[in-house]
Design goal:
mainly alpha, binds iron/sulfur cluster, elongated
Amino acid sequence: MQRSEALTEADRLMTICNSCRYCEGLCAVFPAMEMRRAFTGGDLNYLANLCHACGACYVDCQFSPPHEFDVRVPSVLTRVRHESYADYAWPRALAPLFRRNGLAVSLIAVISMAAFVLGFVAFNDPAALFASRHGLGSFYALMPHNTMALLFGAAFLWAIIAIIMGARAFWNDIGEPSSTLTRSRPLLRAVRDAGSLRYLDGGGVGCYNEDERPRDTRRFYHHLTFWGFVLCFASTSVATLYHYLLHRDAPYPLWDLPVVLGTLGGIGIVVGPLGLYAAKRRREPAMMDGGSRGMDVAFLAMLVLTGATGLALLVLRETSTMGVLLAVHLGAVFAIFITMPYGKFVHGLYRFLALLRYARERHGA
Ligand code: SF4
Ligand code: SF4
């Protein structure tokens, strides 16, 4: 199969780096690279997904531009990484759509879903849309719980199946046996390295952004985003258990577990992505891949929209704006579900799998 331009360039850079090896202490990419003399497409995708784009190897490199070797490891590995999301996506035909027009597709999904909810309400009871409501079950006056569960359950199931199929394709392409998935030592090491974002630290000093002074802000905002997402997921899961096991309908009191988890999570997925976006805007362009920007921004924007509408819903849930806010919030959640397998979301899973392979080949023979 013919290699893409990005893979060809990554191969050239890894061959130069393999002779130089100056950066071997910075992250997992260089030790993993040193275990190989030649690089298959799967190897390069593995190395690209090990890279956390901290920028240290660009700043430290004596061959980075204006040197004629033009070594730009962070930007080239970023491009390979983003291409790998499309290469492994399932069904593959959908991937280019999201890659080229990530933000537009996500916004269309939000608007379509919100329009569907608003249309559903208007068709059944137009007055319900702008009515103020209080107490348990008021959300379901707009759309019955079972309809909501069916719609979102189907979108979530689709996302899970597509993500598993993509991860399977990645795992097969990098040539790792399935037995690695059940080995406890590499698994524990990979969980620790992924959970601490160990390689987003520029070799211990922090991430490089607009200048040569490293900082830890990207890691901080990345943690906020990740844990915000986890808390929102936990909030939805607890609310589902409340509904089916305890027969308690949303919205819940402010002190109740789904609201506490959702509020903390909502703050995380608003502040974290905004911080990451600000860092991205300040970043030295030579360390980034311009072609991947749309996909990155789409994911960050969807998270912010979901978090902001969720928090607004919490504050305004007993006012006449609740109907419209709920529709936009549901639209944003739906857009996240359907775009998850084709965009930036999968980087967490592929990076974890790359770290698992690295832990196995480096430490856990
Ligand atoms: S990035 Fe530059 S300094 Fe680092 S290993 Fe590669 S060629 Fe050497
Ligand atoms: S950008 Fe950072 S994580 Fe990526 S290869 Fe360079 S040093 Fe490693």
